[in-house]
Amino acid sequence: MNRALSITRSLTAGALGIALFGASAQAEEVIIGAAIAQSGVVAPYDEGPAQAMEVAVEEINAKGGVLGKQLKIIYADTKSDIAYGGTAAQEVIDKGAQMVVVTCDYDFGSSAASVADSTGLIAFSTCAGDPKFGPSGIGPNAFTMATGAPGQAVAMAEWAYNVKGWRSGYVLMDTTIAFDATWADFFKKRWTELAGAEALLGEDTFGGEDPQIASQITRIKSLPKQPDFIVLASFPPAGVSATRQLRAAGVNQPLLGSESWDGDYWLEGVPNLTEFYFVTYGSIFGNDPRPEVADFMAKFQKKWGKPPVTSHAITGYSVIEAWTRAVTKAGTFDTDKVRDALQSFNNEALLAGPTTFTTDQHINMQRDLLLIEVKAGKSGNIIQVVRAEKMPN
Q: If we measure between CA atoms, which residue out of 169, 191, 166, 372 comes closest to residue 279?
């Protein structure tokens, strides 16, 4: 045989073997695409969930994977740009993603989720808390692991009335994202149910990356009666600026907020802040009273060498829990069947809490949350576990 032809055939056979091996390896791998914020203002809310997903994937792969396949997460940075979310989603889909995880917010995650949904893939937000994240706002394949803004706000209102005994409040709302509008709306509904319409002394709005709220502060201070507390429906960095201005102006009432205030990365912006309360999924400070959460935080610390930036990591872990259980139950990665399996969840025990999905609602409202206090410039003082008892009509 011609030597050159023999070498050519050998090289061709070798290349074919490598190609077949590569294809075989890929066939045994399932890709999860994460179109999330790895930079920008939303990154602190997506970092922990992404790292927690890696913890969950590592555990699942060590046990043989899902339906005999190993899981792999690939990423595309949305840059905290609402308009870029769809592009990031398409990027991971083009690389073979069979499920897409999106940012921890309806406004910042919905464009990516819409691309995944329209492509026929499950879109799972780690913690988008607005109820529109699901069939009503995106499509039938969109789910979120959040305990929704309504449930958070109701739990806080009930605590303020029943535990603290407060009887008058004021709502100051950031207009930047839908989450805060929904949170404020449900707080007002439940608060007025409990205390009466006259117990809400006023409400005001602000917006922008570095808002100036001098006029809002003037209106608060000129009230005939000062409120027992102020709801600050916002998030860093705009909310930090608002908080700093309130305290500098001598508005020292307790401030109440959502999960958006989790962690302590923002506290240097308001030195010695005290009497600031928020609800969230768990404690990143090593003192969570629930054994399953404490165990997860220890695993997270072991893998990454530090605790998560916020406790939204809990929801990231549960996204992988939920999707892989649904795949296993369906016996396939087919989106329609996996969606049906997810919609059959009825108080499914997940790290984020008992989880129920229906054909109409892909978000949960009444799950346990930690109520945490910022005191003397430090976060992590656990007040108690709370849960919304009665959702407003």
A: 372
**Beta-carbon contacts of residue 128 (< 8 Å; ≥ 6 apart):** 102, 103, 104, 105, 106, 109, 110, 144, 146, 179, 363
Domain boundaries, the chain: 25-146+290-364, 150-285+370-386
Correct CATH for 25-146+290-364 of 3.40.50.2300, 1.20.1250.20, 3.40.50.280, 3.20.20.80:
3.40.50.2300
pLDDT digits (tens, 9 = 90+) for 365-388: 999 999 999 999 999 999 999 999
H helix or E strand, kind and range, residue 107: helix 106-119
- Residues 6+ away with beta carbon under 8 Å from 387: 151, 155, 366, 367, 368, 369
Q: How far apart are CA 341 and CA 357, in angstroms?
A: 9
In order, the DSSP letters of 178-237 are HHHHHHHHHHHHHHHHHH-GGGEEEEEEE-SSS---HHHHHHHHTSSS--SEEEEE--TT
Q: Which residue has the tokens 């072991």?
A: 302
Pairing of β 276-280 and β 348-350 = unpaired
CA–CA separation, 353 and 366 (whole Å): 9
> Is the whole model's pTM more than 0.85, yes or no?
yes
The CATH code for residues 150-285+370-386 is: 3.40.50.2300
Q: Token digits for 51?
A: 């790292």
